[in-house]
Amino acid sequence: MSLISDISVSVDGFVAGPDADLDDPLGQGGERLHEWIFGLASWRDPHGLEGGETTPDDDIVREGRSRTGAVIMGRRMYSGGSGPWEQDPNAEGWWGEKPPFETPVFVLTHHAREPKPMPNGHHFHFVTDGIEAALEQARAAAGDKDVLVAGGGEAIQQYLAAGLLDEVQLHVPPVLLGDGVRLFAAGGPAGALEIDRVVASPAVTHLRYRVVK
Amino acid sequence: MSLISDISVSVDGFVAGPDADLDDPLGQGGERLHEWIFGLASWRDPHGLEGGETTPDDDIVREGRSRTGAVIMGRRMYSGGSGPWEQDPNAEGWWGEKPPFETPVFVLTHHAREPKPMPNGHHFHFVTDGIEAALEQARAAAGDKDVLVAGGGEAIQQYLAAGLLDEVQLHVPPVLLGDGVRLFAAGGPAGALEIDRVVASPAVTHLRYRVVK
After folding, report:
1. pLDDT tens digits, residue range A152-200?
2. How many domains does one find in chain B?
3. Residues of A in contact with B201 (CB under 8 A)
4. CB-side exposure of B6: number of CA atoms within 13 Å?
5. Domain at A151, CATH number
């Protein structure tokens, strides 16, 4: 029962392109970070799509799904950029009518609101009392499974800085975004990792690290 | 006959730690980026040391040495930080009496000066008319071999932005520096790479990309 992060990041270190907003939540060029995943069976299934590739990349996505019992995300990842949320703390965000999450999702925010149901019976829960409280709630929901900090970079970096993160998995497609939202902003924690697993495919490199505490 | 870059970078994207200066040219913690290489036979040899490990990491360093016919570096990499050079354009830098370079080295600078000999018969050449001129001179010196942009990050990014770089090799040890000198500063070129080779060891991951032009 670990706290893990798992995110696609460009070779130059960005998890979204520049000028991300509600219309373009991944920013300019940001969809290129995720192209490696769209064709995979394990991605298509929870998005309501049939078929897809069953490659080693697919195995890794499938593994991530099966071990995840709850998800934590920052409020900007929920709302698709900071703009809409600042204007309306009840903004619905951009995950649409059928969010692809197969577990409860805990959103880090300063605005209290009622849990928002998903059609599959799970809920978005809004946690206003900090990252440790969110983790506690997520662990309770996850049971024996792991808790995933899905993003954005700021949320991952906060859990890392607090010494709470156990594992960092980076999916690195061969892309340079040039600018955008950093996974690791300057002023983050210094520390040591251990290389846990490296899986390479023509489309993406999967780098998994254990955090040394 | 390619133009290649080959540099160690932390998981969070830094090629030197914070507060780099002449006394500490790699910055705080920056030596952790290079610990994977110090024990290798192929690193010890050009530094005048005997013995060392012969591992897959060693093979990669040896390969890099054998294909390199000339080196280009930025002035801060030559002088060990910007401070000394700003005060004295003839500052000797920090490479010491026996620099480890086995080829001519071309230093990008705004200060013209005479070539500086190394004991092995090669020279540091100081090029004041830009990155293309330095590349032309380096290519002439390299013959059939490749030209290596050794660093720092700014020099690599300039050659990449100019469309002159053919290959990017990153050696990524499991280290977080938290802050320091970025390999890829924001505002760099966006573009596509191709994954050429991934070699993993317990100490470091070697990621080699071809630049798509």
Report:
1. 899 999 999 999 999 999 999 999 999 999 999 999 999 999 999 999 9
2. 1
3. 195
4. 17
5. 3.40.430.10
